[in-house]
């Protein structure tokens, strides 16, 4: 019983740490690319999916980048593409009425 509770506490701590890291990355994306928080999470999730990398691992890479380290090439490429896709949508002129 105690061992099960200790495992559960460890899992909850890991989840809390991972959530905090994701929130930090969303803040970085908001500050650097002026993305809304929901869009920042979409970008992070998309990079994770396209690189077959766990979300928290991508988040660790982006935090390291924000602190001056280089992004892994594939993560950087996918991040740039995902951000560009979303910022391009917002920069496109509105359709003119018919």
List keywords for this structure.
98 residues, mainly alpha, disordered C terminus
Helix content: over 70%
Number of domains: 1
> Could you tell me the number of beta strands?
0
Average residue-wise pLDDT: 89
Question: What is the CA-atom radius of gyration, in angstroms?
Answer: 17 Å
Number of helices: 4
Question: Can you walk me through this structure?
Answer:
This protein is mainly α. It has one domain. It has four helices and no strands. The radius of gyration is 17 Å and the shape is elongated. Residues 94-98 have low confidence and may be disordered.
Summarize the structure.
80% of the residues lie in helices and 0% in strands. The protein has four helices and no strands.
Describe how the helices and strands are arranged.
Blueprint: H1 2-33, H2 37-51, H3 55-66, H4 73-91
Helix pairs in contact: 1-2, 1-3, 2-3, 2-4
């Amino acid at each position: 019983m105690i061992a099960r509770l200790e495992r559960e506490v460890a899992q909850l701590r890991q989840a809390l740490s991972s959530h905090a890291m994701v929130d930090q990355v969303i803040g970085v994306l908001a500050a650097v690319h002026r993305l809304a928080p929901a869009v920042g999470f979409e970008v992070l999730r998309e990079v994770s999916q396209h690189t077959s990398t766990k979300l928290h691992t991508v988040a660790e890479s982006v935090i390291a980048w924000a602190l001056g380290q280089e992004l892994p090439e594939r993560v950087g490429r996918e991040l740039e593409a995902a951000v560009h896709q979303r910022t391009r949508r917002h920069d496109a002129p509105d359709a003119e009425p018919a």
